[in-house]
Amino acid sequence: MTETVSGSVTRGGKRKGLKMKRIFTKPGVHPYDEITWERRDVVMTNWRDGSINFEQRGVEFPEFWSVNAANIVTTKYFRGAVGTPQREWSLKQLVDRVVGMYTRTAVDNGYFASDEDVEIFDHELKHALVHQIFAFNSPVWFNVGTQSPQQVSACFILAVDDTMESILDWYKEEGVIFKGGSGSGVNLSRIRSSKELLSSGGTASGPVSFMRGADASAGTIKSGGATRRAAKMVVLDVDHPDIEEFIETKAREEDKVRALRDAGFDMDLGGKDIVSVQYQNANNSVRVSDEFMRAVDKGEQFGLRARLTGEVIEQVDAKDLFRKMAKAAWECADPGIQYDDTINDWHTSPETGRITASNPCSEYLHLDNSSCNLASINLMKFLKDDNSFDVANFVKLTELIITAMDVSITFADFPTEKIAETTRAYRQLGIGYANLGALLMATGHAYDSDGGRAVAGAITSLMTGVSYRRSAELAAVVGPYEGYARNADAHKRVMRKHAGANDGLRTIGTMDGKIHAEASKQWSECLKLGEKNGYRNAQASLLAPTGTIGLMMDCDTTGIEPDLALVKFKKLVGGGSMQIVNQTIPRALRQLGYQQESIEAIVEYIGEHGHVVDAPGLKREHYEVFDCAMGERAIAPMGHVRMMAAAQPFLSGAISKTVNLPESATIEDIEQVYMEGWRLGLKALAVYRDNCKVGQPLSAGNGATKDEAKSESKAAEPEVKVIEVNRPTRRRMPNSRPSVTTRFTVGGAKGYMTASSYPDDGLGEVFLKMSKQGSTLAGVMDAFSVAMSIGLQYGVPLETYVSKFVNMRFEPAGMTDDPDVRMATSVMDYIFRRLALDHLPYEERAALGIFSAAERTAQQRGEDPAVDKEALAQSAPIEAKAVQPAVPEPVREVKELTLESHQRFTADAPLCMTCGTKMRPAGSCYVCEGCGSTSGCS
Fold first, then answer.
1. What was the pLDDT predicted at 912?
2. Interatomic CA distance for residues 391 and 516, integer angstroms
């Protein structure tokens, strides 16, 4: 017989298909039988009032799974109504549901040579998933094997043409994707600018105007109804006539937020007035060309082109436009940048169409109206006890994952028919990894070092080389992708570019040398098989944020990111948490040659201080190994860019990563990052300057707003004439006065505040106690108490103190045990919020944006707190005659501390709208370590 299209039968009637090799499993032994399973209770409480919002008892997980990973999988991925027999209660059920669909589909479509190969595929997938060696992206866990549409893709790219019908279709398609819990991106550059005419003779609205409608739609739908916002990307080409308006759109909205906040409106995340702010539901990126970047470099003019004719309708100074991009990013982190010519130079399917856009996090870059499903490998699972990398098993696992991911496209459902057609015709995959930062630290490699970059480059090259080699093998069994024939020459050219980059990789040590040697073999075999068979997949690899699935795998670091901090908090069975030093650190110290006694001393020091500076016995040349994304020894911005550049030549897609800059960074620093990203061959880049967003108010360094700082500066200018003023008189407190003592905790630091009032009216004295008696902090707080008390007695209004000290930032900071003030940016921030709640009337506090829990609840219900008697009773100024000295009891004990007590970062990261925990960066997005919710992909 001749071969069928599927390749399942060959001449002689023999069954054709892949031969599978065992990696971790044993013949005749089911992978579940080698695991010790245990039952747990998962109970999640509401962060606002402590009530239970999720409860499932007796769930089953392997004993080595952390409490956090089990909680996230139970709440996020188990299907069926809670409390019904249909509800999944074991990780076995979840994995069986997903892997069962993959295995059945593979059998039905002739992927494997024998029943034995089918069993190996099934068992190896189950073993790898339950042992947290890799994970599929979230839509797989949500949908596969259920009655819902079998959507497996997390990333979508849409297309919009210059017609009203196409624009309305865009709104509709985005809404469908968001409703399914995924994200999408789109390039609006085909839409005529506001400087061009319509066929009717009128002037076009321009793409920015249509962004308003899409933004409102996304804000209403949200992403799956669960996360902080819908995940979307909007791209505009740098030669579009409306590019300047696009660049400044979000920065202007940030100015609006600041003005409204200062006017007393509730502009907190989730506040009732924040909905008036536009363009907040998308990441914006400018698509720049090599022509533009060269014009910037040379200081030349650059032409903006009409959309329909392509003619230049306006000349602009390229350097000036580039600076406006950097200035907007400096102000509000948007827009990001995408390098168009670099992206399309690595495009495997250019005969079908150009790559014009990306998914929300910028790692998936391919054809319009297409999608990509993701999977990420946990690199720490391949670090052997002798600190060598398990190259052989990494190769086998990559083969397994690529096979499974390709199978998923065969059974997958898609939100639109256009996306279905493109994805089935090009079969884009997105294999990636997580825990690179932990792997580098554990093996004694600094993240920002030649050695660290060599390891990252070698691993990425090996992963992509194996992926495309397996894709060529799949093409021999089930055929190449439908669009391969018209793009064969281009696809093979890109494969040679990858292989050439691998040849140019310079290795440093034994570890990366061995990985690189295997990568070279894989690329050689890939080119040979691809020439013979073609390829099954137009795209194979990228680096995603790995937010929720990174937590599912108990990864210390996400995607390509370095470690966030040296100290973390571990959830405990039964609730609460404990502070632990990263377990990677002792392993790294052993690798660097330290003895156990020194390791214990260094770890103890890190646990107390949160960093390694001046740690006893630690050599200064080893400090860099423990550098993190933020904190005392933060990795320099260009260190992030160089790491991205080390991995980018070996990826089909791009990298979801934000280059973090300190608050002190300049616009010129951002310009340099953007320019170096282009020179080093990156495909996309985003930046974030600490505290640039107005989600938490900006400060001028001393708690005053920038506007206040300017006015104070003007007031400080010398005047010619001398004005005599009356000297204030001090109104001393009586010997007997009513007072209230409040015990509080901020970021794990405990303190006491005693506030005394005049018998007739008003606060007149405050005493603060923190830390041990005789310590520097205790002395400073005593001195501050005296200074403030004297100020109050000389007539300084309390609201003046509050306006100056609220939002002041320093450590300790983070969660408090006060239900009215859940988060504080410092002890001062907490103290003056509490004093305002206790001693200022509602109207004055509202102008400062300070509300009690009861008042916020009333606002969420649409009620007016000012006429809520219960709220007013709780928030009214203390009547001196009615107050007796007391220590108020907190509503509930807060057992979970915050990392910010040891770090200086993400003060303006959003709170998770599901559980209230401060989120942390994951690629270009944010992830909640408490419940697994994300603001982006996977």
1. 67
2. 10
